[in-house]
Amino acid sequence: MSNAVPDTERAWTVGTAPGIFPSIGHPIALLRRPLDFLNSLPARGDLVEIRLGPLRAWMACHPEVAHQVLMDTRTFDKGGPLYNRLRPLMGNGLVTCRQDAHRRQRRLLQPDFRPSRVADHADMMRREAEVACREWRAGGEVDVSAVTLALTTRVMNHVLFSDSLGGAAAAEVGERLAVIVRGLFVRTAVPVDAPFRVPTPANRRYRHAVDRVHTIVDEVVARRRRGGPDGDRDDVLGTLLSAAREGSSGVTEQEVHDQLVTLLLTGAESTALCLASALDLLARHPEAERRLHAEVDAVTADQPRPGPDELPYTRSVVAETLRHRPPGWLFTRITTQETTLAGQRLPRGTTVLYSPYLLHHDPASFPDPERFLPERWLPGATADPRGAMLPFAAGSRKCLGDTFAVAETTLALATIAGRWRLRHLPGYAERLRPAATLGPRSLVMTSEPRVHAPEGTAPPARSLALRATTAARAQDPRTAGDNGVDDA
Ligand code: HEM
Asked: What is the mean pLDDT of residues 334-358?
């Protein structure tokens, strides 16, 4: 349910975005400095008009206006430039389908992502995070963007296919994904087709990347089908194939394909960016990093495999990362009938936008919004009185994988932080260029081991040493961020 404060007495303001160019509108402002452009919009009104070539679109700049768009899914259906571009890629799967197909699809897939299923995956998530940092060396360089994407792709491979996507295919999916998300954003900001039909190297790369992802998924499905009903596994592919075998379910072969492509891409990409962003932000905020290390050390001293709920500070780091740098930063909708939004009449077929990034960076919702402050989300804090925190959207089209993604990121962060701290390379400067998703795409850092165990120290002795140093600190929450003991 929406937790926006109803504000029926309010006089809504409607405006136009700055930086308009005659005849083409705002694509230049949106493509050149997208985040600054978004941050400039709330000052123009609660609902702000943006022109993208011939297209007139409206951005919901007030949380209550965004909630109206998200909750009234019949009037504000999936559509507009982003979803028009996503459909050739994801077909008619759960992310892209229209409202009339949604309920059946959601009912089919929801059980595989319910909280108890997510809890069943916790060990696998921890194991994959251990694999991700197993080869790191003291002082060595780590390609954080590549490592996080490989990690989340392996996790999705497990959940969707019980690992039957081979290692090379999983790695290729990651590489193709990077090409796809870049191409998607340009295609969203320029909603005319002609420039993308020209066979430029970039357009060819994009088309090839899309074709390869489809082929890779088809091959996994074909292999499983050859195994017959006996080849069924307890994974999402198993759910889809057994539904497809029941004629009454309405699931076609095409839908099996579309749902798998949808889940593979959304599940791997956004979570990888969230984890990479968290590692990046922690390295810039030593106090937050110290508190996270203190929590991980104290909790794992008593419980070597804690769940996400046992790591409240680590979870707050994930929440603040999702606020500060939401991987899904811009989405579109299309009106299915004439309606009124923030007092503005919108005809049927109008494009409406909402942006978690814009809503999360409005100082009216979050004081000092540019500051990375995980404490906003600690139990008891009242961080979000306006209901502006929407990293996973809201309403019936809310992210299917929200619990899954938070668990995966929290456990990965705790697993890595128990062993390593990552540092930026000298001279590193942030160059965050949003694509269809937002986050660091070529982040390289160096790894420093956090605990120097003498060569050959057996794991139990080492964890006892940790326990002795952390227990004293954990008793006094005021010193939880103290860096005096185990941070070597
Ligand atoms: C940090 C990671 C993630 C973020 C930030 C994120 C964000 C979002 C957002 C904002 C939406 C709504 C889009 C809109 O309103 O147009 C969405 C939808 C969706 N997401 Fe995620 N997502 C994440 C991870 C995942 C994972 C791990 C999965 C699957 C395993 C997933 C599957 C989906 C699906 C299927 C939908 C469409 C739901 C529906 O319409 O019923 N996402 N996600």
From this structure: 97
